[in-house]
Design goal:
Neuraminidase; eight-stranded mixed beta sheet
Length: 374
């Protein structure tokens, strides 16, 4: 599954906004020039979602897509507070959750992930923290209580652990220090291992700084063996580091990629998107966000069923991946030619059971695209 993305990390925006409200009271692995890789494509073979009609297929929003162990497609709709489960052909199997404060209900679910044993975690700080669902999709209640500093963008790594981002804020005599980290959570409240960390002097009035230090700090993912892959988000650096569960570095890859400027339309769209997300959280906080004038080199990371690392570039409008094997060899590039102009905002779920995509800010209506590697 994928970790953080370029601009469309809605749950990261949600977590960032929550903290703000609280504050307010190249080359190959050996240095040689990389060989030109083979080219492949991801073709859109079907989609799930309609603009109007059958309510089972009308989404208020799509905030996460995951694959179940049986190949089912799980879609988290934050607006309806539901998880809809579809079969591999896109037929509705069942619906889980709903808005409320009772058992199995959610107030504002911002993310989910599938653990190694098929159980599911759902992040909803408004209803107490991280819920755990059994393989039967019955909610077993909050397993990780979080009322501040919740983990977000979780990626399952084993039967009982996941990798996620977390923003920690520590008051100081002169204000507060903020730390953004990517860590492993073993169904315990504190990160048991840290793979990426950045600390700065927090100021809730400097909204751009907070967004850049959280949303645009790192991309991450993990594989079934518990190895974690992390890349700093940068407009002038393409580099990914892989780490074994014991902290040993197992992979480091990089590529020289030229800077690409954002268009004025992209910058305006980014500002509008952040405004809408903060408003949707019910916050009255004044937002003065200035997006980067450059596209980021790396947008998302993911692991496929063969253990290959997929790196989504943030510099191209047509979604373009570099696919690396476990030895750091670039196997091929993958493009999604049918994404259209909206493709720069697509998010992806890639795993052994399939490939899916969705837009966090669709031009027409929310839908899940089912993809096939050609």
């Amino acid at each position: 599954m994928f970790g953080s993305s370029l601009r469309s990390r809605s749950e990261m925006v949600f977590a960032t906004g929550t903290i703000i409200v609280c504050l307010a009271p190249g080359c190959g692995t050996d240095g040689s020039a990389p060989a030109a890789p083979a080219a492949r494509t991801l073709s859109i073979v079907d989609s799930i979602g309609v603009a109007a009609g059958d309510s089972d297929y009308v989404f208020g929003s799509i905030d996460r897509v995951c694959f179940g162990e049986d190949g089912s497609i799980l879609v988290l709709d934050r607006i309806s507070c539901r998880i809809r489960v579809f079969d591999a052909e896109g037929g509705l199997v069942r619906t889980v959750g709903g808005y409320g404060e009772g058992p199995g209900e959610y107030m504002n679910p911002t993310d989910m992930a599938v653990l190694g044993d098929g159980r599911i975690i759902v992040c909803d700080i408004f209803s107490g923290g991280v819920h755990l669902l059994g393989t039967d999709l019955v909610d077993q209640g909050v397993r990780l209580p979080f009322y501040s500093d919740p983990p977000f963008q979780p990626v399952g790594t084993s039967d009982s652990s996941f990798v996620a981002g977390q923003l920690l804020v520590e008051p100081t005599p002169d204000g507060a220090d903020a730390t953004f980290l990517v860590g492993r959570f073993d169904l315990s409240q504190e990160a048991s291992a840290v793979y990426f960390e950045r600390t700065w002097e927090a100021d809730p009035t400097r909204f751009t700084e907070i967004v850049d230090n959280v949303m645009h700090s790192a991309a991450w993912t993990a594989d079934a063996s518990g190895n974690v892959y992390c890349a700093p988000i940068s407009f002038d650096s393409y580099e990914i580091t892989g780490t074994a569960p014991d902290g040993t570095e197992i992979l480091r890859v990089s590529l020289p990629v030229e800077r690409v400027p954002r268009t004025p339309e992209e910058i305006a769209d980014e500002k509008a998107f952040i405004d809408r997300r903060i408003e949707s959280m019910g916050s009255s906080l004044a937002v003065d966000y200035e997006p980067s004038p450059w596209r980021y080199q790396i947008s998302q990371l993911g692991i496929d069923g063969d253990g290959n690392l997929w790196v989504l570039r943030g510099t191209t409008e047509t979604p373009t991946f570099d696919v690396w094997d476990a030895g750091g060899n670039r196997l091929y590039t993958v493009t999604v030619p049918g994404a259209g102009a909206d493709g720069i905002y697509w998010r992806f779920a890639i795993g052994g059971q399939g490939i899916a995509a969705w837009s966090d800010d669709p031009v027409d209506y929310p839908k899940v695209y089912l993809l096939e590697l050609r």
